[in-house]
Amino acid sequence: MSSEEHVRNIAVVGASGLVGGEILKSLLHSGTFNVTVLSRQNSTATFAPGITVKKGDYKSSDFLESALRGQDVLIITLAVTTSPEVQSDLIKAAAKAGVPWILPNEYGQDGANAELSEAVIFLGHKAKYRNEIEELGRSSWIGVASNLWFDYSLKGGFYGIDISARKAEIYDDGTNAITATTVPQVGRAVARLLSLPVQASYSSSSPTLSDYKNKFVYITSFSVTQNDMLGAVQRATGTDMPDWTVAHTSVDQFIQNGRDKFAKGDRWGMINVMYGCTFKRGLGDQFHGREVANEKLGLKEEDLDEVVRRVVKEVEGK
Questions:
Q1: Which residues of 196-212 are buried (b: 16+ CB within 10 A; e: fewer)?
Q2: How far from the centroid of its chain's Cα atoms is residue 230's Cα?
Q3: For helices 84-97 and 61-68, angle between their N-to-C axes, nearest 10 degrees
Q4: Closest CA to 153 of 274, 14, 288
Q5: CA distances from 204 to 4, 207, 237, 301 (A)
Q6: Strand 101-103 vs strand 140-145: parallel, antiparallel, or unpaired?
Q7: Residue 148: which of 114, 196, 192, 116 has the closest Cα?
Q8: Which of 43, 96, 46, 57 is nearest to 74 (CA)?
C-alpha cells in the first residue's frame, strides 16, 4: 500500500446484530467504502441496496476464504452465545485470503487491562483471538474498546436502574464516574477509524490506521456516575426521588455475589461480575492510562440527557 492509501473494501460479519447494524449504518453513511456482508445461508436478514451480500456456510473454509478474498478489512461482530470456533474460522480464512486488517469481536471493556481480564472471564477469553491473528502473521488487528454500551445497558437494567419499575440499586454511594459509550457511537468510531490513511505521508503527523496496529483504540460518549444516570432518568420520566425505591449495595459484594452464582453454574453471574467491575473504582470504570481517541477520530461527546430520553422512550414504547 502507498502512504496515502485508504482501505476501501470492508467485509462485515454480524451486520444484522445490534453493534454490527450500527457499524454497517455508519460505514454506508460515510459513502467511501465498498461493503460486503457475510451472512449464514439460512439467514432471513435483509440489507440496503448497494450492499454485496454473500451467503454461505460459516463452517466451510472454502466459502469464507472466497468471500473474504479482495477485502481490506474484516469486521467481526458476534453474539456472546456464538460458538467460539466461528471467530477462529473467520480469522483463519482472512489470513488465507490475505485480508490485511481485522477488527475482532471486542467493542466493550478494555482487553488490555490484565486485572479486569482476569476478573471477567468473557473478556479474558478474547485474547486468544488477538493472539491467533498475530501468530498467523497475515493480518493485523485493532480492538475497539468502548466499555459497556450505555444505551443497551440502561435499557436492560444492567446499570442497576429499572426504568419501568422505578427501582434503583446504587453501588456504594453512586459517585464513581465510569466511561460509557452508546452503540451508535461505536458505529461512528469504526467508520472514522477506517477512514484514516493506512500510513502517514512523509511530512504528516496526522493519525493513521497503522497507529493502532495490534492495539486497542479507546472511545467514549461521556463519563457518568450512577447518580448522574438516575437523575437523568428521573428528568426524562418526569419523576422525583420519592417516586423511586432506591437501595444501596457494596460493589464488592455485588461482584462476589456474581462470582458465587457463576461458580454454581449460573452464567448470568458473570454478567454481574462484568457490570460490578465497571463500577469498581480503579478497575473497569475508566481506561486507566490509555489515550482516548475521540479527538483524533473527530468524535464528539454525547449529551447524557438526550441519550437517556431516547432510551426512556424505547422502554416506555413512546
A1: bbbbbeeeeeebbbbbb
A2: 23
A3: 50
A4: 274
A5: 10, 9, 49, 26
A6: parallel
A7: 116
A8: 96
Task: Compute the distance between CA of residue 302 and CA of residue 233 in angstroms, rounded to an integer.
Answer: 16
Cβ atoms of residues 225 and 150 within 8 Å: no
Residues 6+ apart with CB under 8 A from 300: 294
pTM of the complete model: 0.96
For residue 229, give the C-alpha cell. Answer: 444516570
Q: How far is Cα 124 from Cα 118, in angstroms, rounded to an integer?
A: 6
CB-count exposure of residue 178 (10 Å: 0-12, 13-18, 19+):
buried
For residue 204, give the C-alpha cell.
504528516
Cα–Cα distance measured from residue 175 to residue 204, given in angstroms and rounded to the nearest whole number: 42
Mean pLDDT score, 10-34: 97
Q: Which three cell numbers stand for residue 10?
A: 470492508
Measured distance CA(161)–CA(227) in Å, rounded: 10
Helices then strands, counting H and E runs in the chain, come out as 13, 12
What is residue 4's predicted lDDT score, i.e. its pLDDT? 53
Q: Where do the H-state alpha helices sit in 31-157?
A: 61-68, 84-97, 114-119, 121-124, 127-136, 150-155
Q: How far is CA 258 from CA 115, 119, 316, in A?
A: 17, 11, 29
Work out the average pLDDT over 286-307. 97
Residue showing cell 505521508? 201
Q: What is the mean pLDDT of the chain?
A: 96
CA distance 91 to 185: 25
**Cell 477462529 found at:** 88
Cell of 215: 492495539
β-bridge partners, 54: 38
3-state secondary structure 206-231: CCCHHHHCCEEEECCCEEECHHHHHH
